[in-house]
Design a protein that fits this description.
The structure is a homodimer of 386-residue chains. Chain A has 386 residues and is α/β, with parallel strands linked by helices. The first copy, chain A, has helices spanning 22-37, 52-56, 61-68, 85-99, 120-126, 141-156, 160-174, 188-192, 221-226, 256-269, 286-295, 304-309, 326-330, 337-350; strands spanning 4-11, 44-48, 76-80, 104-111, 196-198, 201-202, 212-220, 232-241, 278-280, 365-372, 377-385. In chain A, helix 4 crosses helix 14 (337-350). The longest helix of chain A is centred in the first third of the chain and has 16 residues, at 22-37. At the A-B interface, helix 2, helix 3, strand 3, helix 4 and strand 8 of A face helix 2, helix 3, strand 3, helix 4 and strand 8 of B.
């Protein structure tokens, strides 16, 4: 396998983008990534999108978006793993470059979620859960994560305070991110008085519905050197699955696919969690961030909440988590989220994160964890400046 | 890149499978493929599906189907390129093995199309066309292919007789395929008196709505040798896109993405069309087969219809096309179709095609062409017995 690096990133402000079409939402960051990389062409393109069909009545997105990007003709694929579609696009593009099949590949993600009416978004998102066994019986994602939260509280004594700490931290970080959907700070009181969605999860425990796109350019380390770019190498890629139905799992208080994907990424990288300096993780709900930090091995099982409460995951903490603001503040356009995480890693590793959220000591190695549904799929990537 | 071979295939009878769920439709052929390959595990899985969301209210299919297959934990992806999703799954799995990322990968495809009510299937299929520019204005796929047929007739003098010859041939071949949805022979009179769908295309010019799955196992040539399998090597893989909207193309009588994908596959294989002995092509409509045979270079532009009428594409012809019965007779479960084509290549190359449709001289090299929408994406694969 050839060595692969990320040489360009493109993002736009996420939010409720009613004045932009699905095409615009993708093409704007894709052009920005190509420009940022300084390449004169792309050989191929992979787009992550969870449900073009249900959110926008449009499948066949690889071809549609390549055409709108002015690249009709190139191989262009769409990949899907629910909310981990962006991470899957990154891995697929990584394999394409690593294999020698293509030299310069754009990995992008997109979701246009606000154009559906009524409960259309809730229905579309619920197709990431087990339709026949969970959704048919009334489960929605806030409900499924609420079950995980209650189980975690029961088993480990995780508290309301700890969930709140995650939301307050991520909004603090996101307030410094010019691309965030909700770039405002929040307080303990605001979070704990916000409307209840599925007990114990309140609206301020939940990531929002978002329109957004994101794109990065991958190429070989050799080509990256010729582009005179800082070499941000993809040293680990791990992908794992689990039953998508919560009730089929042995333990609801851990995320097996996250642990497995991380093990695979670490093995490829020849690293352990001790080598990682910061991470972007999939905080679709506050409880998710806590469980993920435990499943990754950053904190022992049952200790993620306490660590968040003590500020260990803050910008100045021992292990900063979601310096971008996370899904909570930055937004969660499901197909684009995984690519957005990679972009934050690249910014932090390059020392260019905006508005004061850059880590004081520019890190050399970071990790992104992107998951689908209630953890039925997970992608973990490790990037290192070499 | 490592050399890659197909070592196992699995199929079941396609049709209106109201007694089977989406999961069953996939897992049955997946288990058959694993059994046929004689492997004791798979490292990874890629599933092609066009619209799990619109046809079955279920996305996140990689994880769901891996779990139902008893393989929760492995990396499992879903890829989509409309009706070329199966071909894309095959290419993605090929890259994964070629790259060294995984040794044994299952490439599958599935679509459960008959569980939607009313015009649900027509709406879902139309998401392979340009929703904003074509579908919004009333276009459906029979309509789009009818436009191509009229243009081809006008430019080249293609006739009703020639379209009919494709349907009669494919049903003749399909009558010998135990897995075909419509394994009956038909006649010129039956085709030409069948109900009009979109002039000049009649119902017997159209492939059906189908429930079906298919799976193959890919591994390295080195592992294939240890399995003591005939070595059916993937010598070429080509992928190309075009505008998915017909009106954006320079010429409606040719398929540019097919020509481009074939050029790329031939380049990788070090072959030309003259080296190919037979092909499975994407006859979603009779006119499609004619245009594809021209775009692949099997026949000169405008001569595909005459060749079909002369019997050159029959089982005993100079260049047999769709020995399986094609989409027309075998059925067209859109996500599975591309994998079904690969299975027919493997059977013919192995000399085991059922019920008298095996080519008299067992071929050494064959080609599969699978396309999305009205040709907005195309995958071409070339397999050779070595």
């Amino acid at each position: 396998m050839r060595d692969v690096a990320v040489v360009g990133v493109g993002l736009h402000k996420w939010g409720e983008l009613w004045d932009k079409s699905l095409r615009d939402v993708f093409v704007e960051p894709a052009l920005a990534a190509i420009d940022n990389a300084g390449v004169d062409h792309i050989d191929s393109m992979v787009v992550g999108c969870m449900s073009g069909g249900l959110f926008a009545g449009q499948e066949h997105l690889g071809s549609l978006l390549a055409d709108y990007l002015g690249q009709a003709g190139i191989p262009a694929s769409r990949v899907e793993s629910a909310c981990a579609s962006g991470g899957l696009a990154f891995r697929t593009a990584f394999m394409e470059v690593a294999s020698g099949m293509s030299d310069i590949v754009l990995a992008g993600g997109v979701e246009k979620m606000t154009d559906v009416s009524g409960d259309g978004a809730t229905y579309a998102l619920a197709t990431a859960a087990d339709q026949e066994y969970e959704v048919f019986n009334g489960a929605t994602f806030p409900g499924l994560y609420a079950l995980m939260a209650v189980a975690h509280m029961h088993k480990y004594g995780t508290t309301r305070d700890m969930l709140t700490a995650v939301a307050v931290k991520n909004h603090n970080n996101g307030s410094m991110n010019p691309y965030a959907q909700y770039p405002f700070k929040t307080t303990k009181q605001e979070v704990e008085e916000s409307v209840m969605v599925a007990s114990p999860l309140r609206i301020m425990d939940c990531s929002p519905i978002t329109d957004g796109g994101a794109a990065v350019i991958l190429t070989t380390v050799d080509i990256a050197k010729k582009l005179k770019k800082p070499i941000i190498k993809v040293i680990g890629s791990g992908h794992a699955t689990d039953s998508i139905a919560l009730h089929s799992r042995e333990d609801m208080t851990t995320l097996r696919a996250t642990t497995l994907a991380a093990e695979r990424a670490f093995k490829m990288a020849g690293k352990t969690i001790k080598d990682i300096e910061f991470a972007e993780v999939h905080d679709c709900f506050t409880i998710a961030e806590i469980v993920v930090t435990e499943s990754l091995g950053i904190f022992p099982a049952g200790k993620g909440g306490e660590a968040a409460l003590r500020g260990e995951t803050g910008l100045d903490g021992k292990f900063p988590i979601n310096t971008s603001g996370g899904l909570k503040s930055k937004g969660h356009p499901v197909g684009a989220t995984g690519i957005g995480q990679i972009i934050e890693l690249v910014k932090q590793l390059s020392g260019v994160a905006e508005n004061g959220r850059q880590l004081k000591k520019t890190p050399k190695i970071g990790l992104a964890q992107n998951m689908g549904g209630s953890g039925g799929s997970t992608l973990v990537h490790i990037l290192e400046v070499i």
